[in-house]
Amino acid sequence: NVISLGIGDPDIPTPPEIVEELYREAKNPVNHRYPSSYGLMLFKGAVSDYYEKRFNVKLDPSSEIIPLWGSKEGIASVAYAFINPGDIALIPDPGYLVYKIGTSFAGGTAYAMPLLEKNNFLADLKNIDEEVAKKAKIMHLNYPNNPTSADGNIDFFNKVVDFAEKNNILVCHDNAYSEVYFDENKKPVSFLNAVNSKEVGIEFNSLSKTFNMTGWRIGYAVGNKKVIESLGKYKTNVDSGIFNAIQFAATSAFKNYSRYVHQNISVYKSRRELVYSTFDKIGIKYYKSNSTIYIWVKVPEGYSSKSFAELLLNKANVVVTPGNAFGNYGEGYIRISITLPDSRLEEALERIKKVL
Q: What pLDDT score was predicted for residue 268?
């Protein structure tokens, strides 16, 4: 009877209207043939409309958007498309492991950018060695952040653009958690809101967390035309595109995105407050943020990330993710996901209380 607070996989079902659209399109024999690796214009048009409404960012569907088998695939693919053996990629630490693994598989070297709580888990660009910066090909960023739950901001992204222009670096920003936020006045921004951002970078996004579609495997990359074109050239040689029925269903998702997003937020907000109040009562410290489905928790004194996670597993039958699983600078923390039914979350928290 182990309860997992580990993986961030929404338990909220995909909205039924989206599922119905998939069912309709899956029955159409036209959709049973090979799709284009560059995606349906209808889907890309929906992404373009969404970015303009949500972020006030204009995108050309014909040249600045490409669909992906989820943003995870795109992050790995961009490494193969742009990293040569010996090249350096700047990656956040702690961070989503695909940034490092994709770089390594492509023969590159990952250089860690420490994300520290004293800096609100924003990468400190001034501390990046100048010689490393000159050799770097790619910089990976991710805000709202997994695992820390920290938010980025326009001032930071503008500094990133300046840094990238100075050092001729491609910025790859992962914005998969942009629609999980808890303050309407502090909605997460896009990297593409920064001045001249399209000149130096692209942004990955996904339908996984926004519409609870992790198993559907559909996301997209947007931004710099040349980068999108190169990513497309790579993908035409390694995959055959995304099933058109899924693209049609995903297109329908964007029509009601605001309603779906706020339905999710209402669920996650109550769960987050439950975790906060429980931890406040038992003296567990955590990083209080505005975004994501995660809570970044300080381990109690006397424990490492691993030993505290082992304690919760062995004594409470609760799985959490040790912070150092995301990199060396995650040591001293654990990550908790709130993507499980309320009753199971309540039970997990009760077990943790008894152990501590």
A: 98
